[in-house]
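Memo to structure team: turn this sequence into structure tokens by end of day. - J.P.
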Amino acid sequence: MFSRRHPYLFFILVSSSIFAATILGISTLIFLGTREPDFNMGEKVGVIEISGVITDAEDTIRNIRKYREDDSIRAIV
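Reply from structure team:
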């Protein structure tokens, strides 16, 4: 009955609800995706995949430094 009496207000209410739910869902996914995992599996091995000729070593060096600083990684392959 409300949608028949006030169609524009009903449309605005439904649209804003959908928009708010979408923003909430996206922000939740972003928050969960950027968190560090809560579980610890123990000692780890860092794997750096190199294929072909190395033309730009910045990514490889960054990965090696990241693995070197992590205390749970015991080897780099």
